[in-house]
Amino acid sequence: QLQLVESGGGLVQPGGSLRLSCAASGFTFDNYAIGWFRQAPGREREGLSSISRSGDSTNYATSVKGRFTISRDNAKNTVYLQMNSLKPEDTAVYSCAAVDSFKYGLGFDLTSSWYDYWGQGTQVTVSS
User: Fold this and answer.
1) Smaller CB count within 10 Å for the chain: N or C?
2) How far apart (Å, rounded) are the C-alpha atoms in residues 48 and 37?
3) How far is Cα of residue 64 from the mean position of the Cα atoms in its chain?
4) HSE (CB half, 13 Å, CA atoms) of 100?
5) Are 72 and 34 in contact (CB under 8 A)?
6) How far apart are CA 121 and CA 25, in angstroms?
7) Per-residue pLDDT tens for 24-37?
8) At residue 103, what are phi and psi to the nearest 5 degrees?
9) Taking Cα atoms as reference points, which of 97, 100, 95, 65 lies closest to residue 83?
């Protein structure tokens, strides 16, 4: 059974860093592109970043470009999101999602409805 499990969330002060992990199981991981999304209370889900099956293509939302870095280790079936210079407005539940690689790079890589499989999310709170 396909499963995505996020970890690494928590409470961090403004300006701090966190690294989120998305561990996959139950499917051929390197056949899938992975995206990171977040949703704050009362707001729509926001696409943050995505990475191709091989890791050679990435993209970022304007809101996180230059602060967040996505990477993947296919040997470990894991995708990471390194988050630096965190701001209070980054507070949200962060989720990873998987989409078959043939759907990647068609202009919908940060669109949540494009993705087929989702993790349960991990809370990130940025506060002093």
Assistant:
1) N
2) 5
3) 11
4) 2
5) yes
6) 16
7) 999 899 999 999 99
8) -90, -5
9) 65
Interior/surface letters 69-108, b for 16+ CB within 10 angstroms, e for the rest? bbebeeeebbbbbebeebeeebbbbbbbbbbeeeebeeeb
Q: Looking at this protein, which amino acid is placed at residue 21? A: S
Token reading at 4: 């995505």
Positive or negative: CA dihedral 78, 3, 84, 13: negative
Give the CA angle between residues 56, 61, 66 to the nearest 5°: 75
- In the chain, count of helices (H) and strands (E)? 0, 11
Residues in the chain: 128
Does pLDDT of 121 surpass 90? yes
Tell me the per-residue pLDDT of 35-80, one tens digit each, with 9 for 90 and over: 999 999 999 999 999 999 999 999 999 999 999 999 999 999 999 9
Nearest to 90 by CA among 6, 5, 7, 14: 14
Q: Residues 108, 100: contact at Cβ < 8 Å?
A: no
Q: List Cα–Cα distances, 4 to 12, 22, 86, 126, in angstroms.
A: 24, 6, 24, 24
